[in-house]
Write a structure and sequence with these properties.
Blueprint (H helix, E strand, L loop, with lengths): L3 H12 L9 H13 L4 E3 L2 H5 L6 E5 L8 E6 L12 E3 L2 E3 L8 H20 L6 E6 L7 H4 L10 E5 L7 E6 L1 E10 L3 E2 L10 H10 L4 E4 L2 E10 L5 E2 L2 E10 L2 H21 L4 E9 L2 E2 L5 H12 L5 E4 L5 H7 L4 E4 L12 E3 H22 L1
Parallel strand pairs: 3-6, 3-7, 7-18, 8-17
Antiparallel strand pairs: 1-2, 2-6, 4-5, 5-19, 8-16, 8-18, 9-14, 9-15, 10-13, 11-12, 12-14
Helix pairs in contact: 1-4, 1-10, 4-10, 6-7, 8-10
């Protein structure tokens, strides 16, 4: 059995090492050492130069049963802010944030689960397929590490991403496409008290555009948000420039394109009314995927879950993950639940019992793949 208390200890070691996006070098070194202790050699690729961070993706290959398909295992090592100086609070197997930082279970729970699974497979001599284990960097800021991988050098024909939600047995089989927006709204600077009529308030122009936008949950598969507004230099200056950043996501590419056009047009029209400009930069962040129930990667995880006596469930996710990138590059991949709750908040927590269950699930899935190849 996989010991939840041992998992809790390793998880806490991981989260105590600061690794905000683009600064993952120390935690990657720790994971590298843990793999080396198992006799697994890992190497870093060249992602650091591409993403602009101090660490690259960590890649390890583990030989397996001949004739079995090569399987990709993935978790990311970066965390969101506030994520430095994490002090996990432990009560039995429940681990919480101190309330001043995130806990970092997104996605160090996934890292701990992969390490525990590999250790269990090797210690017990269990049959498993050949594995490509990839710990990616800079996931939280746009899946950057996964996008920087050399896919021509990978052999995996399916993948399991350990970056899911709280409930054991939940398989995220679909996720949306997403666009990232940035507008530069131009105004005219002037003294706000002496000659405001000579100015044009760029914040006001931006506000008019935003007021026209449908935001939040637009329907069951589409969302949109304006998340950042920066403009002005001082209260006595009519602001010359306002920068607005937002996003849109949808499981339907048709709906996403319609929302993109609507958002860009709202800023163009607001700018035109004031005879100014709102320059838009629109970036495709990631593309949607939808893995069917009968695809091998999902079927193995489903049947392994049932063998353990759990109730497998499929759900459509609302966020992006490295699975989006793997699917886009032709590696059918799904996301398995890892146990954390209230992620990306200072109230984040995880039960190591759930992490151990997830490691058992992943182990059983890999054993099943190997058994059916023999």
């Amino acid at each position: 059995m996989i010991d939840p208390h041992a998992m809790a200890q390793e998880f806490c070691e991981l989260v105590r090492v600061d690794s905000p996006s683009l600064r993952e070098s120390e935690v990657n070194a720790l994971i590298h050492d843990r793999l080396a202790e198992m006799g697994i050699e890992a190497r870093a690729d060249d992602a650091a130069a591409t993403v602009g961070g101090n660490a690259s993706n960590l890649i390890a290959r583990v030989p397996g049963v001949s004739g079995a398909p090569t399987v990709l295992l993935n978790a990311h090592t970066d965390t969101v802010e506030p994520g430095c100086g994490i002090c996990p609070q432990i009560e039995d197997t429940v681990i919480r944030s101190s309330g001043t930082t995130v806990l970092g279970a997104d996605d160090k729970a996934g890292c701990a689960i992969i390490l525990a699974t590999l250790r269990h497979l090797l210690d017990k001599g269990l049959p498993h397929p050949p594995l490509e284990v990839i710990f990616t960097v800079a996931e939280e800021i746009g899946l950057c590490g996964a996008q920087a991988l050399d896919y021509g050098a990978l052999e995996a024909s399916m993948g399991y991403v350990l970056d899911g939600g709280r409930t054991m047995g939940v398989i995220t089989h679909a996720a949306p496409s997403a666009y990232k927006f940035e507008w530069s709204v131009r105004g005219i600077a002037a003294h706000a008290g002496v000659c405001p009529e000579r100015g044009l308030n760029s914040i006001k122009v931006a506000a008019e555009a935003i007021a026209e936008l449908p935001l939040g949950r637009l329907d069951f598969e589409t969302t949109a948000n304006i998340g950042v507004i920066r403009g002005g230099e001082a209260t006595n200056i009519v602001p010359e420039l306002t920068v607005v950043r937002g996003e849109a996501r949808s499981h339907s590419d048709e709906k996403l394109e319609a929302q993109r056009e609507l958002m860009v047009r709202a800023f163009e029209e607001a700018a035109a009314r004031h005879e100014t400009t709102a320059e838009a930069s629109v970036t495709s962040t990631y593309r949607s995927f939808d893995v069917a129930r009968d695809e091998q990667v999902l079927d193995y995880a489903w049947r392994a879950c049932e063998r353990l006596g759990f109730d497998p469930q499929m759900e459509r996710g609302g966020g992006g993950s490295d699975a989006n990138v793997f699917n886009e590059h032709g590696i059918p991949s799904i996301i398995l639940a890892t146990g954390p709750a209230e992620v990306h908040t200072v109230n984040e927590w995880v039960d190591a019992q759930r992490m151990a269950e997830s490691a058992r699930w992943l182990t059983e899935t890999l054993v099943l793949i190997a058994e059916e190849a023999q």
